[in-house]
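pinging the channel bc i need a second pair of eyes. not urgent but kinda urgent?? the chain im working w is below, pasted from the shared doc
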Amino acid sequence: MSNFRMVDRTTGFLLPPSVDEWLPERHLARFVVEVIDGLDLRAMSGSYRGSGSASYHPKVLLGLLVYGYATGVFSSRKLERATYDSVAFRFVAANDHPDHDTIAAFRRRFLKEIEGLFVQVLLLAREMGVLRLGTVGLDGTKIHANASRHSALSYEHAGKIEAQLQAEVADLMAKAEAADQADLPDGFSIPEELALRQERLRKLAEARAKIEARAKERHAREQAEYEAKLAARKAKEKRTGKKPGGKPPSPPASGPSPADQINLTDEDSRIMPVAGGGFEQCYNAQAVVAEGSLLVVVAEVVQAANDKQQLAPMVDKITALPEELGRPDTLLADSGYFSAANVDACANAGIAPLIATGRQAHYPPLGERLAQTPPPPANPTPVEAMAHRLKTPEGKKLYALRKQTPEPVFGIIKAVLGFRQFSLRGHQKACGEWNLVTMAWNLKRMFALIPA
């Protein structure tokens, strides 16, 4: 005869239930709640008027967002549903059920304040002994914007559509002035068609104006770089007495090119090459990750696909961190970040750079691996000194840590947590959401580093 446990879904609780009893003592949800309860949320709570119906406390809504991002739940509707379906989310929400509009509005409203909380979490990690800024790795990853690349409009194509719409408007005006309109199909309204095309023309004019403004900014930036290169060539010629080799730099072209684009859904996003080939509408998410703990110490989102211009701003953000966190002594980065100016930027900040000067072979020959370390150059420049250090056994061992520092963090955030696309549109909101993602990752990682 079979022996089964009794199935009873109708008997009520003999004593009032407590959500505190529904979770194990060691659980990520408990850790998230404890950390958020210890954060300074006065910037959030102080912005509420205190009138009308009672509001959900910021620590409840922030806890839902952080625990959601740490477990791969990003949608406000899914977060609301999880407060009913998931024991852990019920615990975080204190057995309450904020609606999705409240959660989404809170996320949009306090993105800037979350950036400050990001640093508070780092200070907590330092106090817990799980964060040490010795060696850090810098890398970037492309994350899809909340927009399709098919919504992008080029400057040339916008001009063609604009000309077509203007011709259609003129044709409609001619039809409106004609006395006999019997040949018009049923349901065809000239005023409505005119209004539709005039609205499209207005949006096209705005799009072209924004592309032209971007081209003007780009030309100013490229002109400054062009003049700096000319000045460097003249200085070298004066110093050596010889004309520098190679072709002189070409002056930048002014005005927008026909291929310059703007996305009509999220105009701040850009078409970028992605891993595996092809192009998508993306942002370039940057992160500085501490070696060993794999905690993100600096996070940023940029609109440029190229990483070379991102090192100096990220170093500035590192030096702006509170002194209690300490300062890294070595920064690791791949060849996409290499330039003499970037090496100087690290040196000026008191950080030793280890940046690959070119692409390295995956399987170098045995003779190259066993080759003797070359002697250090006499009176080396910062680039020469770094290049020599990369050839030493100590430098090779240290640089080998790069692939196992920022890249696993990006892999887990994208493949395990499932964060591959921003939920919010606009550059500033994407920056705020990336801070939220990396803060949630830090809490998840801190929980894993705490001894059981």
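so Residues 130-148+275-435 form a domain with the Nucleotidyltransferase; domain 5 fold (CATH 3.30.420). and The mean pLDDT is 86. — does that match what u expected or am i reading it wrong
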